């Protein structure tokens, strides 16, 4: 049955589309939707249906979603606006007759104090109230979030954070996207919330050591207090809101909110998740 993927012009949505096609889903049964449809021209050449959508345009989304069985709703990137945007997409899915929505949420969004959780929790509540069948994919951290950390370590020989010994069960976007494609194209996932994350959580001391191995140079972890971290970020030119947000996220990690513990991701993939070292090698190669 047809699957619509939102955010297909971004890295996550694009990975979902590619995994659907690689797993044998007919191109004609995939709709790649995003704001800048010109970025999807190569997919259109491969037979994928493409659609220009805007989360503010419910009528346009309703037309794009028409005829689909499943909507893979990739969470938006505009923090502070996501509940409204996701709500409009859910309304469009209902109006279009979509049967099921697969939503990319955040780790333990319904119970966590994670600074990113409230918008995801609210979206989950909208989905449950919509009457649509649903699958919730509560994604842990993306290893790609540490691309800048890798480059800073390459330049300075340090990984600096206020995460303490907190652990992160990260995995690359492609792993999470592959799981989303599995859920979208196979039965048995209705009404389920999966807690997705990497098999092997790591702390920042391990991150520093692994980056050192990847780049072939010594890298150390320098732990700082939240106050010291905030001051350093402000001195580096970040605005107060962004700097505070980064420090709050480090505090969430320090408190164990991204430590994982579930193997739902590797179960859906049918293989182990991509190790930290392998993901960092890919990031180092992309930046070279």
Q: Quick recap of the structure?
A:
With 288 residues, the protein is α/β, with parallel strands linked by helices. The chain is built from twelve helices and nine strands.
Helix content: 40-55%
Q: Roughly how many Å apart are the termini?
A: 41 Å
Number of domains: 2
The CATH topology of the largest domain comes to Rossmann fold
Q: Could you list the spans in which at least 5 consecutive residues all have pLDDT below 50?
A: none
Shape: globular
What is the chain-wise order of helices and strands?
Answer: EHEHEHEHEHEHEHEHEHHHH
Described by strand count, sense and barrel closure, the largest sheet is: 7 strands, parallel
Spatial strand sequence of the major β-sheet: 3-2-1-4-5-6-8
From the structure provided, what is the oligomeric state, counting identical versus distinct chains? single chain
Main CATH class of the largest domain: Alpha Beta
Number of helices: 12
CATH fourth-tier homologous superfamily of the largest domain? NAD(P)-binding Rossmann-like Domain
Number of strands: 9
Radius of gyration: 19 Å
